[in-house]
Amino acid sequence: MNAPEPPEALPPRRSRHAGAGAGFLMAATSMCTVQLGSALTVPLFGQLGALGTAGLRLGWAGLILLAAIRPRPRDFTSRDLLACIVLGLVTAGMMVFFMQAIARLPLGTASALEFLGPLTVSLFGPRKGRLIWAAAAAAGVVLLTEPWHGGADPVGVGSALLAAGCWAAYILLTQRVGDRVTGLKGLAVSMPVAAVVGLGIAAPGLAEHLTWSPLWTMLALAVLSPVIPFALEFLALRHLTTSAFGTLMSLEPAIALMVGLLVLGQRPGTAATVGLVLVVMASVGATRAGVRPAASSERAPAFRYEPGPEPVRRDQDRAAVCRGSQPL
C-alpha cells in the first residue's frame, strides 16, 4: 500500500500578486472618488467655505458609518479604541489643515507640500529599490503641481506641512487599526471623532450660511468622499505595505489632473504630462515591490507532509497471533 501524495500548496507568488492587484485597485478607486468628490464640491465653496464643506462631509460620513456598521464597545480593547480616536483626530487635521492651505496657496503648491507626508512614509519601506520609486514619484508630483508658479504664504506653507504630517500619521494608523479591528469597525469609530472635530471648527461659519439644499447635497458628496475612499483605504492597507501605499498616493495628483480635464476642462501642459508618466511608473513599481506579507497571527502554517505509520502487513499479523505474540 503506497503512502498518499501530499497536496500541492497554492503558489505563494500567485497569491502575493493577487494581493498586490487587489490593493492597487482599491487604492486607485479611492483616489478617483476623492478627486471626483473634490471637483463636485468646488461650486459649494462660495456658499459654505472650504472649512464648512469639509466639516459637513465629515459629519455626514460619521453618521453614515455609525448607522451602517454599528460598532459595539466589546469589539475593541482599550488600546484599539484609543488608536481609533487618535486616527479620527488625525483625519480631521488632515482635511482641515489642507483646506486652510489651499485658502492661502495655489492648489499645486499645497498639493506638492502635502504629498511630503506619504512620500516620507514610502522612504521607510523594507523593499529594495524604494528610493528609486519614491524619487520618481516626487519628481512626478513636482512636475504635475509646478509649485514654483505660486506664492509662499508662511501660514499656508505651515498648514500644508501640518496636513502632510497628518497624512503620514493617517497611513500608519489606518494600517494599525485595520489590522487590530475586524471589518470597518475602526473606521466607524474614527470617522465620528473626525466629524465632531471638523464640525466644531466649521460651526461658526456654517451657522450663518447653511440651508437645506446644500445640506442634502453634502450628504451625497459624503458618500462619494470620504465614506467610499476611506473604507477602500482601510482594506487596501491589509494588502500593501505602508511604503507601497505611500508611493501609490502619488497617483492622486495625476488623477486630479484627469478629473480636472474631464470635469473642469483644465488641460495639462507638457510638464504635467511628463509628471503623469512618472507617477504612474512609480505606482506600478511600488505595487510590485510592496506586497504586504500576512500578519504572523493570521498567517496560515506552511504545509508539511508527514508520512503516517507503516502499513500493517496482515500476513505477519496472522502469524503473530497464532504464535501468541504482538504484531510486528
From TrEMBL:
Keyword Transmembrane helix attributed: yes
Organism listed in the record: Streptomyces iranensis
Biased composition (Basic and acidic residues): 311-320
Residues that span the membrane, as ranges: 21-42, 48-69, 81-99, 155-174, 186-207, 213-232, 244-264, 270-291
Record's protein name: EamA family protein
Pfam families: EamA
Family the UniProt entry places it in: Belongs to the EamA transporter family.
Chief subcellular location: membrane
UniProt keywords, alphabetically: Membrane, Transmembrane, Transmembrane helix
Lineage: Bacteria, Bacillati, Actinomycetota, Actinomycetes, Kitasatosporales
Gene Ontology cellular-component annotations: membrane
